[in-house]
Design brief:
- The chain is α+β, with helices and mostly antiparallel strands and 345 residues long.
- It has two domains: 7-45, no CATH class; 66-342, HIT family, subunit A (2-Layer Sandwich).
- The protein has seven helices and 14 strands.
- The protein has helices spanning 75-79, 129-149, 185-201, 205-216, 256-275, 317-322, 331-338, and strands at residues 7-16, 22-31, 38-42, 93-95, 98-102, 112-115, 155-162, 174-180, 220-224, 227-231, 238-245, 280-288, 297-304, 325-327.
- The strands form two sheets. The protein has a ten-stranded antiparallel beta sheet with strand order 4-5-6-8-7-12-13-11-10-9, sandwiched between helices.
- β4 (93-95) and β5 (98-102) form a beta hairpin.
- The radius of gyration is 21 Å and the shape is globular.
- The relative contact order is 0.16.
Length: 345
């Protein structure tokens, strides 16, 4: 047994409806056992249809504008920056069709961009597994090289913003890579949580969380190789899904199977999001590259509002000003809907 607590409470709002009837509306408040953060689930909105999700939106206007894309060949060779020789003698890292280079608008000391291939616009859920695996492997090589020249750059991440609705500035699919000696808020917080948990229990926090979820079963989705997938107990994004790799703490692993299996799970989640007629999403994968790290690898995926005109944003004052994520779907329902996309594994 673990010491993790899956806390949830139900609040009731009482009101007089426009028809004059007295009604009660329930809101579920959940506290995530890993993060300790609160999520609100507005149960009365579960049956509401999100505007703009009756069908998958049409591609954005510049979906075919390859001539003005700096990430498309041959422009990528002349319009993107090059790495210093300490990181790459060639100026860019290449793995299969994946090309990696510095971010022209960096967010940290070692901010980079990893391209999948030469495809300018890729609908969600339609990328090839090999393209994701090649790009993730390229990211791993880069992060290992960064730490070889700057051992203090231990706070590392790989993220993705698919389409402008998810914060993407360019349509051409790419991953964002970052390494720094300064921790992000999530790095800092999760470093403390995982270290304290290990000191108190002698076990890894994410592994215990995963074991609890597998025993419960209601939010467990499936596995791709060693990666195991669950719907987040207290989601901080719509249809939030986690992929956990038990016992592995480093993004710098050379094992090809790690990235192939992760790619499979990422695409399964994308296909699930596509079935909901959503076309944008975010991905996050963090690590703390120290020998003593207890922070296991966890991929987090959330779907975003569609890239289409006049659709309501999925972040409101509740998230930005109060710090509580409010969603309209139960994680147990998310898992039930997502499981069929893992059944071929």
């Amino acid at each position: 047994m673990t010491s993790l607590s899956f806390m949830k409470e139900t609040l009731t709002a009482r009101l007089i409806s426009p028809s004059g009837e007295a009604v009660e509306k329930n809101i579920e408040i959940r506290t995530h056992p890993v993060t300790g953060r609160i999520s609100r689930i507005a149960l009365s909105r579960i049956e509401q249809k999100e505007p703009g999700t009756d069908k998958l939106p049409e591609p954005p206007p510049d979906a075919r504008d390859v001539e003005n894309c700096p990430f498309c060949h041959p422009a990528v060779q002349s319009m993107t920056p090059r790495l210093f020789s300490g990181l790459s003698q060639a100026g860019r890292l290449v793995n299969g069709e994946s090309v990696l280079f510095p971010n022209l608008f960096p967010y940290g000391s070692y901010s980079a961009v990893g391209l999948f291939d030469n495809s300018h616009f890729v609908e969600i859920g339609t990328a090839s597994q090999s393209s994701y695996a090649a790009c993730l492997t390229n990211c791993s090589h880069y992060l290992r090289q960064v730490q070889s020249v700057d051992p203090a750059a231990v706070y590392q991440s790989v993220t993705q913003n698919h389409l402008p609705s998810a914060g993407g500035s360019l349509l051409h699919p790419h991953l964002q890579i970052n390494a720094d000696r300064f921790p992000s808020n999530h790095h800092r917080f999760l470093k403390e949580r995982t270290e304290v948990y290990f000191q108190q229990n002698g076990r890894y926090l994410f592994s215990d969380y995963l074991n609890d979820e597998k025993r419960d079963g209601s939010r467990y989705i499936g596995k791709t190789g060693r990666w195991e997938w669950v719907a987040a107990f207290a989601p901080e994004g719509f249809y939030e899904i986690w992929g956990i790799l038990p016992g592995m703490t480093s993004l710098q692993t050379p094992e090809a199977g790690t990235w192939e299996d992760l790619s499979c799970g990422i695409l399964n989640a994308q296909k699930f999001y596509r079935s909901l007629c959503r076309n944008g999403y975010n991905l996050g994968l963090l690590s703390i590259e120290t020998r003593s790290s207890r922070f296991e690898l966890r991929a987090v995926l959330i779907v975003r509002s569609n890239y289409t005109a006049w659709v309501r944003n999925d972040l409101t004052s509740f998230e930005l000003m109060l710090g509580d994520m409010t969603t309209y779907s139960l994680p147990e329902d998310t898992a039930a809907q997502a499981r069929p996309f893992w059944e071929t594994e």
